[in-house]
Design brief:
CATH superfamily of one domain: Transferase(Phosphotransferase) domain 1
Number of strands: 50
Main location: membrane
Strand content: 15-25%
Shape: globular
Largest sheet: 15 strands, mixed
Number of helices: 18
InterPro entries: Kinase-like_dom_sf (IPR011009), Leu-rich_rpt (IPR001611), LRR_dom_sf (IPR032675), Prot_kinase_dom (IPR000719), Protein_kinase_ATP_BS (IPR017441), Ser-Thr/Tyr_kinase_cat_dom (IPR001245), Ser/Thr_kinase_AS (IPR008271)
Protein name: non-specific serine/threonine protein kinase
Bound molecules: 2-acetamido-2-deoxy-beta-D-glucopyranose
Membrane topology: Single-pass membrane protein; Single-pass type I membrane protein
CATH topology of one domain: Transferase(Phosphotransferase), domain 1
Radius of gyration: 32 Å
GO molecular function, one term: protein serine/threonine kinase activity
Mean pLDDT: 81
């Protein structure tokens, strides 16, 4: 018997065993396992050795490094272990809505240098906020609201120069707002931050004028319900981008409002109630965006009815209680077209109350209790909503009109809103753990409370505020792969913090329960603010309840994994080998078994994505041909292996020959993997409308017999990515690279500037640029693309999608999508063409590396890029022509602010210049020369490496899980 195969097997087994144990020692597994060890429960599928390979719920990886932990509403109890620091690649940590997580945050959290988002909303963490959070130089999003943190706001937060969102509201923080003290930074250094949400603490001292200057980008400044004292910040008028200002309920805030206050012309919501503000009543003339004004209960000088009262055309809600204002109320006030609520009690309004006949149709409360009104003149169509005049001279003891009671007159008092149940017949009786949804199905909803900190409206009797929200939420979640049957809202009311609070129930679609994975996604959408309410609802926070999973969480005390490490090191060498062999065999067998399932799971990260393929989901056509299943079966010789030219997690790609002889590529979605329906439709609808030689042509599609297939022109030379790595056998010298980049730029510029409506591709990357037989670049894969508004200039707010490494950080933070996001990705692609490296590899980000190299360069040679340049280029005897301009242009494309980036047509113009300089000739078809192949390997097919389903559908940018 020949033993050598066995020997080989044994050796490989041994190697494998040691490699695996090395992995686990390396950190990922130990970090996450240690983290979970400090919790009393853990998600039930947290078993196995490697969280990344073993598909742990709520975990996203890059390779075998954990990049994202999202476990909101998992009912976790316990503490946050200091071992978290070993998760060194972590970018997103979301443990929101786990009320049982307590104790202080470990200072080692400051070691997570890659962290972008730290979200711990609605837990029970206490103690001081560790100052080490200030070391997280990349942090953009910090939400610690609704915990029990005490002590001061650490001044070190001022070092977070990339911070966009800072929410510390609803804790027990004390002390003042830290500012730059000559050495250490303070909150005034956060010039990029748009949101300061600090309400509901015990913060005190004066509000430092330093944090209110024209360098600040603040749009929401929320300091309500604290103990701030001293004078009103005199420089507030300089923060001209401000949209929401809440300083209400500080009780001790004094002093006059500065004269330039009405320079805040963007201000929509103004809350100054319950302070001791003095001086003249502020002059709000010119603040034409104001919706909601509440200045009640202050100590302003006595005043006459101010003129701005009737000139503000967008006022919905005017609250001026107990302010010493006198005079007759002008009729024009009631004519403000969107006016809803007037709360004016406790002033000296006198004379006649004349609402007139064309008062705002939305007006539903006029509270004038305790004023000096003598006459109520009724004319024309009478006002029938609530009116309170008790405490005015008109309400003599003889006058028993309803408006002379403290409850006032009203047509009807609306009960609090509750979403109706739409049952066509007798509603079913639900099992005790389930609830009847508004669409009349029984399911376990995800529940929580949503609070809008500053809505633009106050008329809660107008149910459209809630029906609109229900519909919008349902569609936003569904667009993001979380299909909802319906959304139910209950009991909206303004709570004592003056937040509009309501309870919320989200019902799963097509199943009785959300999975753990669903809840991880849903919670993250809300905690990370990637769900945005419609305009006018203002900033919000959500507190989720624990979800009762069908799959119970498991106790954490006995870690599930076999801890092999001590085992291996703790026994004799001979024993070790034996053990290793046994363990490794087991591992291999287990892994073998799991692997196919796993691939499928990865392509389908959200198991709730089954979109019914109904006739209504057949996309709109613009010239693309509809194929039947039988036709495609025929042209691909029954999807034969010989025609199989690529494989992806979505399914397979086949070559086919149409009856006329045209070669096509047929992308066939895996049966049952319907989650791509939306992307499938998008791709057809957009691609069938665009025609350009640098955009791949869609020949047609097929939705038949439960299959979804796309038929493209056949592009023989694979992806740009494969050419850069040498995989496709096409060698790209510098001149060819310039030509390919130019072609791709033209394709993208066409989408931006000539397609109607303009299209943002959203997933520009080297694996989505295909090369034809003459190396013409063709932009492909429109699964994530978005048409822009009719004028094309507008931007759209959308769920962030794209591919990690190429994703525009501004788009990621603001969710505002514009063409400039593609420009960013294109800049990354240009750098990739230069370096031939993946944009994100081993924690190295090509943009950062190139910027650094260019900044540090000692000599002008190769722009200081010797180390980074693709060796193929660096090896050429002369420096690539136009390199310096090329690098400049690429770096302009990856400027942080979209406004600083060139347009794609500028990029085309620039590249045309280099191409001339490099002597390539601008005609796309000229000068390609003969292609040099490496060896005889046949090119891999373009579509194979790239699948629409590798994009993230959640709020995170796509993070590809690389196979080992
Ligand atoms: C913080 O702001 C102050 C004052 O604006 C400035 O002088 C200082 O350089 C800033 N520090 C940092 C680290 O940005
Ligand atoms: C008002 O704001 C503008 C910029 O929006 C600024 O130029 C002007 O100086 C400000 N006026 C006052 C009085 O602060
Ligand atoms: C309020 O401001 C406007 C414009 O700034 C000015 O014209 C008006 O006179 C001011 N009103 C009062 C009462 O100061
Ligand atoms: C991966 O996780 C999902 C969601 O928890 C689960 O449905 C699926 O069965 C898991 N697959 C494997 C291979 O563990």
């Amino acid at each position: 018997m020949d033993l050598s195969p066995w020997l080989v097997l044994l050796l490989s087994v041994l190697v494998k065993a040691f490699v695996i144990s090395g992995d686990t020692n390396g950190g990922v597994d130990t970090g996450l396992t240690a983290l979970a060890a400090s919790w009393d429960t853990r998600p039930s599928n947290w078993v196995g050795i490697n969280p990344c390979e073993d598909n742990w719920t709520g975990i996203i990886c890059n390779g075998d490094r954990v990049t994202s932990i999202r476990l909101s509403s998992f009912g976790l109890t316990g503490t946050l272990s200091g071992d978290i620091q070993s998760l060194s690649e972590l970018q997103y940590l979301d443990l929101s809505y786990n009320n049982g997580l307590h104790g202080s945050l470990p200072s080692s959290i400051g070691a997570l240098s890659n962290l972008l988002s730290l979200i711990l909303v609605g837990c029970s963490f206490s103690g001081e906020i560790p100052k080490e959070i200030g070391h997280l130089a990349n942090l953009k999003f910090l939400s610690l609201n609704s915990n029990k943190f005490s002590g001061p706001i650490p001044a070190s937060l001022g070092s977070l120069s990339n911070l966009y969102w800072l929410d510390l509201a609803d804790n027990m923080l004390t002390g003042g707002l830290p500012i730059f003290d000559g050495t250490n930074p303070g909150l005034d250094n956060l010039t990029k931050t748009l949101h300061f949400h600090f309400g509901g603490n015990q913060l005190s001292g004066t509000i430092p004028f330093q944090i209110l200057n024209s360098n600040m980008s603040l749009i929401h400044l929320l300091l309500e319900n604290n103990n701030f004292s001293g004078s009103f910040p005199p420089t507030l008028g300089l923060v001209t981008g401000l949209e929401v200002l809440r300083l209400d309920n500080n009780h001790l805030l004094t002093g006059p409002i500065p004269a330039n206050f009405n320079n805040l012309t963007q201000l929509e919501e103004l809350h100054l109630a319950n302070n001791k503000l003095t001086g003249p009543l502020p002059n709000l003339t010119g603040m034409n965006s104001l919706n909601f004004v509440d200045m009640s209960n202050n100590s302003f000088n006595a005043s006459d009815v101010p003129a701005w009262l009737t000139t503000s055309k967008s006022l919905t809600s005017l609250y001026l209680e107990n302010l010493n204002i006198s005079g007759q109320l002008p009729q024009a006030l009631f004519h403000i077209p969107v006016l809803q609520t007037l709360k004016l009690r406790g002033n000296h309004f006198n004379g006649t109350l004349n609402i007139g006949s064309d008062f705002s149709s939305q007006l539903d409360l006029i509270d004038l209790q305790d004023n000096q009104i003598e006459v109520y003149a009724v004319e024309g169509s009478q006002y029938k909503k609530k009116l309170i005049l008790v405490g005015n001279p008109i309400c003599t003891p003889e006058n028993n009109q309803p408006y002379c009671t403290t409850t006032g007159q009203a047509d009807q008092d609306m009960p609090p809103y509750t979403t109706a149940k739409n049952c066509s017949s007798l509603p079913p009786t639900c099992p005790s753990d389930q609830t009847l949804s508004p669409n009349c199905i029984c399911a376990v909803p995800y529940k929580g409370t949503i609070s809008f900190r500053s809505p633009s409206f106050s008329d809660l009797s107008n149910i459209s505020h809630f029906t609109v929200l229900e519909q919008q939420m349902r569609s936003v979640f569904s667009e993001n792969g979380i299909l909802l049957d319906s959304v139910s809202i209950n009991d909206p009311f303004f709570n004592t913090n003056n937040n509009l609070q309501m309870s919320l129930e989200l019902f799963p679609s097509g199943k009785a329960q959300f999975s753990q994975q669903d809840i991880s996604e849903v919670g993250f959408m809300l905690s990370n603010q990637s769900y945005k309410p419609p305009r006018g609802y203002g900033p919000y926070f959500f507190i989720g309840q624990d979800y009762s999973f069908a799959n119970e969480l498991v106790p954490s005390s006995k870690p599930k994994r076999t801890d092999r490490t001590p085992l291996i090191s703790g026994v004799t060498v001979g024993g070790a080998i034996l053990v290793a062999v046994v363990v490794a065999f087991v591992i291999i067998i287990v892994r073998r078994k799991r692997r196919p399932v796993q691939t499928e799971e990865r392509s389908q990260p959200f198991d709730s994505w089954h979109i019914k393929s109904t006739s209504s989901s057949v996309p709109q056509l613009h010239g693309a041909r509809v194929f039947t299943f039988v036709e495609l079966k025929k042209i691909t010789s029954n999807f034969s292996e010989a025609n199989d030219i690529g494989n992806g997690s979505y399914g397979k790609v086949y070559r086919g020959t149409l009856p006329g002889g045209q070669l096509v590529a047929v992308k066939r979605s895996q049966q049952g993997s319907m989650q791509g329906s939306l992307e499938f439709r998008t791709e057809i609808e957009l691609l069938s409308r665009v025609h350009h030689k640098n955009v791949v042509t869609l020949v047609g599609f097929c939705v038949d017999q439960g299959e979804q297939m796309l038929v493209y022109e056949y592009v023989p030379n694979g992806t740009l990515r494969d050419s850069l790595t040498g995989k496709s056998g096409v060698r790209l010298d510098w001149r060819r690279r310039l030509r390919v980049v130019l072609g791709a730029a033209k394709g993208v510029a066409y989408l931006h500037e000539h397609a109607d409506p303009p299209i943002v591709h959203r997933d520009i990357k080297s694996s989505n640029v295909l090369l034809d037989d003459r190396l013409n670049a063709k932009v492909s894969d429109f699964g994530l693309s978005k048409p822009l508004g009719v004028d094309g200039r507008g931007n759209v707010t959308t769920q962030v999608k794209g591919t990690m490494g190429y994703l525009d950080p501004e788009y990621y933070m603001t969710q505002h999508l514009t063409q400039k996001s593609d420009v960013y990705s294109f800049g990354v692609l240009m750098l990739e063409v230069l370096t031939a490296r993946k944009p994100l590899e081993h924690g190295r980000y090509v943009v950062r590396e190139v910027k650094k190299a260019v900044a540090d360069r000692a000599s002008k040679d190769l722009c200081g890029l010797q180390e980074l340049l693709d060796p193929v280029l660096a090896a050429s005897p002369s420096a690539p022509a136009g390199l310096e301009q090329y690098v400049d242009l690429a770096l302009q494309c990856v400027e942080e602010a979209g406004n600083d980036r060139p347009s794609m047509s500028d990029v085309v113009g620039e590249i045309e210049r280099f191409v001339k300089m490099a002597g390539v000739g601008t005609g796309a078809d000229s000068a390609s020369g003969s292609l040099v192949s490496y060896g005889s390997r046949s090119p891999r097919h373009p579509y194979s490496g790239d699948s629409p389903f590798e994009h993230s559908a959640g709020a995170l940018p796509s993070v590809r899980v690389e196979p080992h």
